[in-house]
Design a protein that fits this description.
By secondary structure, the protein is mainly alpha-helical. The chain has 2 domains: 34-132, no CATH class; 140-246, no CATH class. The chain contains 11 helices and no strands. It has helices at residues 39-46, 51-57, 63-71, 75-95, 98-101, 108-131, 138-168, 171-181, 193-208, 213-221, 226-246.
Length: 249
Amino acid sequence: MAKTPRKPASRTTPAPRPASPPAVATPSDDPYRPTVRDVAALSAQLGAATLEEVRLLTAAYSDEELIELGNDFATPRVTDDSLRVLGVTASFLQRAPAAEQQAVDLSLDVVRVAAWAAAEDTRAHEQLRGAAASERTGAAGAEAEAARVLVRARAEKRKLADTVRAVAQSATVGVAVTHALAPAAHGSPSSGPEVSLELLIKEGRALLASKDPPVQRRAQLFRLTPQRLDAAASLARDASQASTVLGTP
């Protein structure tokens, strides 16, 4: 009797194993992540600098211009940004392969000077905050008020310069405004904001005296009034006294 051929046993193919998810980078994977927590520690790590080195890197700016630029930014924000940017840059210049470093036209000394300047700014800011509690008494209070007056005078100087330019629409007045913003560079013995205000007020009063209808109309549009100039003159006198209190030229 013939045997019925047996069917071969079927083999179950195992299901493919799921692919592993791609690795997710974490902050610790960053090879140039800063290893310090504040700019003071970063400056200590890189080494001290000098004011002469800072001036070498900022030679294009006068002290007055640097002060005005600094007034546009809050120190805590500058401190945070400095730590983030300079910390990463320092780590890169210390750890990156030489071939990668050659692609960057920057030396570690520049970062060192910048970190020192940021640390000094933070220290000065903390000193000012610490003095806030006692500034209402004696000389500390007078100096604090004088500093606030000078800040207001510098802000008004920039605003009035923009207004005079807008009203005049004149290259000649534009040159006069430029001279007023940097009086020491054009022969004045003082570079204080009160000197700039006085020069700008003179230009403003000349514009108000103009009989040219377009100039008169622009003066209205940009709110250049005798009252505005009188207030600026009063602020200039206060700024002059504040400069005396602080002993600034």
